[in-house]
Amino acid sequence: MKHTLLLTFLLSHCLTGSATSIPENIQTEANNRVKHDLNPGIALAYNDGGETVYAFAGVANLNNQTPLTQDAVFEIGSITKTMTALLLADAVVKKDATLEQSIMTWLPDQPSQGSAQINLKQLATHSSGLPRLPGNMTQILSPDPYAEYDRDDLLTALAEQRIKPDQQHYSYSNYGAGLLGELMAIRYQKDFQSLLTERVFKPLGMDNSYADAAQVPLDLKVTGYSGKYEVPHWHFKALAGAGSVNSSIKDLMTYGLAILKADHPELKEAIQLSTGSHYEQQGLTLGLGWHIHKGVLWHNGGTAGFRSMLMIDPLQNKVAAGITNQAEHDVEDLVRHLIWPEAPLREHDFPVAINPESLRQYQGQFHNAKVDKTIKTAIKGDHLMIHFPNQPAYRLIHIGNHQFKMKLTQSKVKFQHNEQGQIEAMNIHAFGGDMVYQLKQ
Q1: Phi, psi of 35 (to 5 degrees)
Q2: In terms of DSSP H, where are the helices of 73-217?
Q3: Tell me, what's the pLDDT at 18?
């Protein structure tokens, strides 16, 4: 697969002392992931105290090579859950609900086999006891699994749901988050999409965010992929609160900064309520919709063709976000690294160009006395080859820092050098173990 690689860095509202671009190692990594076909497109954003910087690698659509922009709209999946929980927090602030209120309060005619003991806070903290998905959801393997699941289906599942008190602990639930969104719609007698637009998107100025994929303008809509295959967008009815939002990287940062600052005149109290600690279990802490780790608020998202990540660090005054239109390769490590530079980036072992002259230092015979085996390396054309006893030669792919990989076996070879920079040994990592071979003089 070959496609144009676009890497653009956009700056806004420059402030002295804050970042003026995405860090170089993150830029390079995003570049490489697109170049080597892991991701069709990547959008990143970072703010460390006043300035927002953006980076884009790749494209919105592989067929027409549409470039990514700040306004390109992706599916952000489960980050939606934090917005659904914000609607709940806003309802509590307006005294239209309480966190401890039973879910049956707004369903007076709904039969229940045990769901009456679930409260609204439990839906927002994944501690309701509801399973990940409703038991009557029959289209889960379809290309658009949530599209036909409506309120009648949801209420039928709830009527048949049996929950014991010992089941009410943390267990991630799309069912619970979707139910919370539908309950908010019932309370205000509006569809979830309209409610979210009215109470979150418009007040925060999120002009390119939509709670229904059908509403996204075609010229802004990013195409999703699973591996090399284009996949359809997801649509939602009753479970929209679990993952229906489509948004741009710019809007996602607008949302993240609003959560960080918690000073919006209409949503200040609701944001403060939603970002507080509301559930703890064996080192796990949750706000309303948010996971909290080391004081950092975070949530990720995933659909059939997209992955997303949003992290907010009030202590360091940082916000970082990332979205990709590839389901199989997320960008969560890039976002974590922006918040915590000590957090490692995922190793992909991308090929690194090396000229034949530089390869000469790796030629030789390497011996391991313990197993009494000698392995030879030699240059063939522009490549370094490795010869195991009684086997054909294998091509080694240079991945930088004196390291090579064997694509066929996913083994790694690292050459060790002395203080003078001369190669003196070769370490082979294969099948979970390491073996060192000394250079024969």
Answers
A1: -55, -40
A2: 80-93, 120-124, 151-160, 174-188, 192-196, 202-204
A3: 65
Q: Which neighbouring-strand residues pair with 351?
A: none
Question: Which residue shows structure tokens 């892991």?
Answer: 38
- Give the Cβ contact number of residue 422 at 10 Å: 9
Query: For the chain, which ranges sit under pLDDT 70?
Result: 1-18, 112-114, 408
Q: Residue 377 and residue 396: Cα distance in Å, rounded?
A: 9
Residue 222 DSSP class: P
Domains of the chain: 74-223+231-287 (3.40.710.10), 356-439 (2.40.128.50)
Beta strands in 30-174 (DSSP E): 41-47, 52-61, 66-67, 73-75
Distance CA 350, CA 328 (A): 17
Return the pLDDT at 298.
98
The angle that helices 151-160 and 174-188 make with each other, rounded to 10 degrees, is 120
Beta bridge partners of 12: 52
323: phi then psi, degrees, rounded to nearest 5: -140, 145
**What gap in Å lies between CA 223 and CA 23, rounded to an integer?**
27
For β-strands 224-226 and 403-406, DSSP reports them as unpaired
Helix (H, G, I), strand (E, B) or coil at 186: helix
Which is it for the CA torsion 307, 312, 313, 318, positive or negative? positive
Cα gap 281→290, rounded to integer Å: 14
Whose CA is closest to 339, among 22, 60, 34?
A: 22
CA 253-221-199 angle, to 5 degrees, is 50
pLDDT of residue 115: 75
Give the chain's length. Answer: 441
Q: Quote the CA–CA distance of 190 and 188 in Å, as a whole number.
A: 6
Q: Please name which of 65, 23, 22 lies closest in space to residue 40, comparing C-alpha atoms.
A: 65
> Which tokens hold the place of 439?
């250079």
Interatomic CA distance for residues 406 and 264, integer angstroms: 54
List the end-to-end C-alpha distance of the chain, in Å, as a whole number.
Answer: 44
